[in-house]
Amino acid sequence: MSRDGLLSFLSSILVIIAGLLVGLIVLLVSNAEQALPAVQTILTFGVDNMRNVGDVLLRATPIILTGLSVAFAFKTGLFNIGASGQFMLGGFVSIMIGVHALAIPAPLRIIFALLAAALTGALWGAIPGLLKAYRNVHEVISSIMTNYIGMFFAVYLIQEFAFDQGRGTSAHLHPTSTLPRMGFQNIFREPVGAAFRESHVNVGIVIAIILAIVIYIILEKTTFGYELKACGFNQDAAKYAGINQKRNIVFSMMISGSLAGIAGALNFMGTTGLSMSVVETLAMEGFTGISVAFLGLNHPIGIIFSGIFVSYLQLGGARLQPHFSAELVETVIAVIIYFCAFVFVVKSMIGKVIKKKDGGN
Amino acid sequence: MDMLYFVLQHTMFFMIPLLIVALGGLFSEKSGVVNIALEGKMVLGAFTGTMFIRHIQHSIDDRLAEGLELTGMLNILSNPVPLLFTALLLSALTGVAVSLLHAFASINLKANQVISGVAINMFAPALAIYVAMLVLEVQHVRFTNQFRIESVRVLGDIPILGPILFQNAYITTYLGFLILAVTAFVLYKTKFGLRLRACGEHPQAADSVGVSVAKMRYAGVLTSGVLAGIGGLIWVLPISNEFSGSVGGYGFLALAVLIFGAWKPQRILLASLFFGFMQTIAAANTAIAFLPAIPAQFYRMTPFIATLIVLAFTSKNTMAPKAAGQPYDKGGR
Predict the structure, then answer these.
(1) More confident of the two residues B329 and A245
(2) pTM above 0.95, yes or no
(3) Which of A78, B151, B241, B311 has its CB surrounded by the most CB atoms within 10 Å?
């Protein structure tokens, strides 16, 4: 690992430790007796048995992808906080196809649903991209707007076209529309008596990892990726070098949006029967993606690990009741993100300390 | 006619918090700090405010149930007006406390203002629900609404204006208009306002004539905390008798009001009126006979679409403070 990479890694770890310490303080203040068992639950539940390991991977799938979405935009100088809206619309399109497009044969239908979700996310991401490139509108502001527009639109569409009156949420997918489990259920399971309780982890995690590698290759090994990053580093220099910087902004946002769209599809196409809510709130996955991206230092491969890490904390956190509520973990993650805002400050501080020790080398 | 008054009274309920919080955002952005953390500040402001109201109301009920007399503070707080204003003060302090985090990150550490804002927005609802679960064992903070004014004496009888502004009203409505007037005055008629705006437009120039950019930006961000904090409580009071860790995206809507209002107090008033009206229609469109039966979601998304369109057509010569979002670096040019 390069020196810079090592520094980044160190500062990321420090940020995580700081966040966990704050979490521990909150635990101690609220219920000192149960604090240590709670920490133990958070830290060990994810590896308690193979089923939990599978569930960690299952939960990690959408946030790895929203993390990639945020990181890809960030690498090219854009802040996509619109992943939430892209996620919800992508999710809706995949549900729509999974419920209604039964004329398409099953394996093709799943691929079609994923591609359609990617396209939807890309189109939704294109709006802030176009506004940024041609109208000079800051993408953070326009993303906030497209988040809410997308969310209200998705809620309306679900209610109108794919609603399950009984559950009050989106309709069940046709059983042949769900993502294949690839035999993972034989690995990620927990023995209960003579039977097994299986995790619903599916091909989604494989897709997420492959996409992370693809994004890495695009960013690091292709001219296209180099051009996109050049626009992020210095727009004027990129323009001078003959790079069509406006077009690249739109492409960046579209790729970023497509990743969030796929995240939506993979989230709702599992065999868990997870359905889309019609409560008018933004999907948290889009914002968790920001923390995943920053914890993973905006590096596609790092994001695979940070996504799994955040999912691991969340799964353990969900186990905390009744002594503590699951929101505790959300609080800790938010604290970690807050510290992430300083990750570059931390990095430069560590850098200075090391430099002093090196005697100015 | 009654229907129209009903709509306008409800428009006030939605409009006033939007106005107050957008003005909060104005202070912050005019000083040069982008504030997408308004939502989180509203959530925590609403949380401490409603917790306080609930606590006092319960203490009073307990004492009365035991047949004891109310004494001291409790006696004073048994009246709605002192109770409301004490709760607002607490909400304001909460907003300030949260803003300190944002200010410290953005001003002292020169951190990314967007990330810090996002973190606060994620942190706030989680913390509010966590503490509520811990203290009350449910995430809803229930309280009794004793703040509604049936009709203001004399003023409520004025034709047209009476029913709109002075019947079925809340004191907070007048507080909102007062804050608007004070904001316009402070920003455009005082030395402080001039300095604050200078830090958002051209911090180097402000610095060169001896204005402390850091202090001014702290002032801007903390003022936004005060207004967003009370805005949260003012949002929840008229429309619900419980708070459950969310202000329904109104912090972001207030940000849209600020942009739609072109960073100018008078236009922010008009923008909040328009947005408040759309929210009212969305909430009650099935009850309002003269409106077309469009799903509520379309009314809800209209303000956001309108803001996007305005942004698309005005951003070439934007009214946004020029240095908003950029950490101030003394060595920069």
Answers:
(1) A245
(2) no
(3) A78
Residues in chain A within 8 Å Cβ distance of B255: 141, 144
Q: B249 and A148 in contact by Cβ < 8 A?
A: yes
The interface pTM score, or ipTM, of the predicted complex is: 0.90
Do A159 and A145 lie in one domain? The reply is yes
With a CB cutoff of 8 Å and minimum separation 6, the contacts of B65 are: none
Q: Is the domain of A220 the same as that of A344?
A: no
> Is A42 a member of any domain?
no
What is the C-alpha separation between B272 and B155, in angstroms, rounded? 24
Residue A162 falls within a domain, yes or no? yes
Residues A155 and A287 in one domain: yes
What pLDDT is recorded for position A29? 83
- Looking at chain B, the whole-number percentage of residues with pLDDT higher than 90 is 53
What is the domain count for chain A?
Answer: 2
Cβ distance of B130 and A137 shorter than 8 Å: no
What's the domain range around A13?
A: 1-31+324-361
Q: Supply the pLDDT for residue A43.
A: 84
Find the mean pLDDT for residues B170-179: 94
Residue B329: its pLDDT value, please?
A: 75
Asked if A333 reaches chain B (Cβ–Cβ under 8 Å), the answer is yes
Contacts of A313 in chain B (CB under 8 A): none
Residue from B307, B274, B297, B39 nearest A150 by CA = B297
> Are A84 and A124 in the same domain?
yes
Task: Count Cβ atoms below 10 Å from residue B65 Cβ, excluding itself.
Answer: 8
Distance from CA of B233 to the nearest CA of A (A): 20
Q: Identify the structural domains of chain B with CATH numbers, from first to last.
A: 2-317 (1.10.3470)
Buried b (16+ CB within 10 A) or exposed e, A131-158: bbbebebbbbbbbbbbbbbbbbbbbbbb
Q: Is residue A43 part of a domain?
A: no
Give a yes or no: residue A41 inside a domain: no
**Which chain B residue's Cα is nearest to A283?**
B122
| CB-nearest partner of A334 from B126, B297, B308 | B126
3-class SS of residue A34: helix
Task: Confirm or reject contact between A22 and chain B (CB < 8 A).
Answer: no
Q: B120 CA to chain A: closest CA distance, Å? A: 7
How high is the mean pLDDT of chain A?
89
